[in-house]
Amino acid sequence: MIVKANGASWVAATDQDQKAIFPAVTMQPDDSETVDVTNLKQIRLRLGAAPNMSISINGQPVKISEKPITQNIVIQFSAAE
Q1: Fewest Cβ atoms closer than 10 Å to its Cβ: which of 25, 47, 65, 81?
Q2: 78 Cβ contact partners less than 8 Å away, ≥ 6 residues apart
Q3: What percent of the chain has pLDDT over 90?
Q4: What is the distance of C-alpha 37 from the center of its chain?
Q5: Could you tell me the pLDDT band of residue 78, with boundaries at 50, 70 and 90?
Q6: How would DSSP label each residue in 8-76?
């Protein structure tokens, strides 16, 4: 998972056990972090200024609200067939 800030935004992520996989931090414009989510069943993202963030998993963008709100996103993974 790649988390990129296009503007200042608070962000945090936890796994299915609510263990932090991305610490709560305020990211600044052009900050970017890569997080290995290979063995996870679920990710819960909390974005403080949703429009200021872009997130992708395996090259696929995650849809984020364009409204200037705090957004919670839950992503469930299924086993590959």
Answers
A1: 81
A2: none
A3: 80
A4: 11
A5: confident
A6: -EEEEEEETT--EEEEEEEE-TT-EEE---TT-SEEEEEESSGGGEEEEETTEEPP--SSSS-EEEEEE
